[in-house]
Design brief:
Elements lengths: L19 H10 L5 H11 L14 H10 L6 E7 L5 E6 L5 E9 L2 E5 L3 E3 L14 E4 L2 H15 L6 E6 L9 H12 L11 E5 L3 H8 L6 E5 L5 H7 L8 H15 L3 E7 L7 H11 L4 E7 L13 H13 L4 E3 L13 H9 L1
Parallel strand pairs: 4-7, 7-8, 8-9, 9-10, 10-11, 11-12
Antiparallel strand pairs: 1-2, 2-3, 3-4, 5-6
Length: 356
């Protein structure tokens, strides 16, 4: 097992790393009644306080014990930008001086939070800013959880809530599988933030073993696959991970997911001018996906200064969509948000790294 496939461990654990059941076990170990774990959980996820000291119905000796046993603050806000369309992008500092990004996107149906699962990324997609500088480390489940809690705290004064989550920020969640799943279980817990499973989407570049594992989790959480090409040769040029897990292996894992869960799968396809956006690419993609319960999300590529790709002209985007739909493949064009604040994955962190 490679070092980056292993969980990241800190000397003093983050309180958000712990499930309710783990907190109950901890209380038992401390000779505290287990109902205290429920009170603690309520302070964390319902009242959303910022310190153990604020947990007024916990005895002072227990609060002191919690303070010495856990780190409470996992993220510090370095900066935030707000777009004209209401999108908010945070750059958060971690305890070891790394930085990550989290985005709140406002829709007419609610507020969505895009979370990050790794510091950087090693997948190496040639059109993405997240991979610049490579992968530094995995996040703990608590560091992922804290992103949603911070977003919810920002929304609390507006009496609004986080209604959906997309795991589409920096990093590959299925290379940080256990932490990602622990995060998901905390998000859907009925005594916590209680976010509906069907309002959560996890996106992967096609880590095939983890795709099979996720299929067997038997959840209602949505699965999205970044493919960005209709064949092996082109996908390997755009996504080096394709040399490890070939395109057909990814498609086979997708078919297995659909067959076992009965759920629709989303394919994310970033359109890059003159590279993967020609009518013949659309036709080939339609043939690959024929008969699958799926949806294609077409994404006009974001300009990254360090890359030389250009955006697909608007009329070509619509033509690509038309060809897919003519072949019976449902396809939509992603609505762009936060374009004026560098809201695409990795862009803000990349700027921060240049300055530090």
């Amino acid at each position: 097992m490679k070092a980056f496939d292993q969980p990241y461990v800190v000397e003093t654990p983050f309180i958000y790393d712990y499930s309710l059941e783990q907190l109950q076990d901890w209380m038992k170990e401390q000779d505290e009644p287990t109902f205290r774990a429920g009170q603690l959980f309520d302070w964390l996820y319902v009242k959303r306080v910022s310190s153990f000291e604020e947990m007024s119905n916990l005895p002072k000796p227990l609060r002191d014990k919690l303070t010495s046993s856990f780190q409470f603050i996992t993220l510090s806000e370095i900066t935030r930008f707000e777009s004209k369309d209401g999108t908010v992008k945070f750059l958060f500092g971690l305890h070891d001086n790394h930085a990550i990004e989290t985005v709140i996107m406002r829709h007419n149906y609610g507020n969505s939070v895009c979370v990050t699962t790794q510091v950087g990324c090693r997948i190496g997609c040639t059109f993405c800013a997240s991979t610049l500088g490579g992968l530094k480390r995995n996040l703990t489940s608590g560091e992922i959880v804290a992103q949603v809690v911070k977003a919810q705290q920002m929304l609390d004064p507006e009496d609004q809530r986080v209604s959906s989550i997309v795991i589409m920020g920096s990093g590959e969640p299925f290379e940080n599988y256990e932490a990602t799943m622990a995060f998901l279980r905390l998000m859907i817990h009925p005594k916590g933030l209680n976010i509906g499973q069907r309002h959560i989407t996890v996106s992967t570049s096609g880590i095939v073993p983890s795709m099979y594992k996720f299929t067997d989790e038997n959840t209602q959480i949505n699965l999205a696959i970044s493919i960005h090409a209709p064949n092996d040769e082109l996908r390997s040029k755009l996504m080096p991970v394709n040399r490890r897990y070939r395109f057909q292996e990814v498609i086979d894992a997708c078919r297995n997911y659909i067959a076992k869960t009965g759920r629709r799968i989303t394919f994310e396809y970033a359109l890059i001018g003159g590279t993967n956006d020609r009518p013949e690419h659309a036709q080939e993609l339609a043939e690959v996906l024929q008969g699958m319960l799926c949806h294609v999300n077409l994404i006009p590529v974001n300009h990254v200064p360090e890359r030389k790709y250009v955006r697909t002209p608007r009329e070509d985007i619509f033509e690509f969509q038309r060809i897919l739909e003519k072949n019976g493949i449902n396809a939509t064009i992603r609505r762009e948000q936060g374009h004026d604040i560098a809201a695409a994955c990795g862009q803000l962190r990349a700027k921060h790294m240049e300055l530090t």
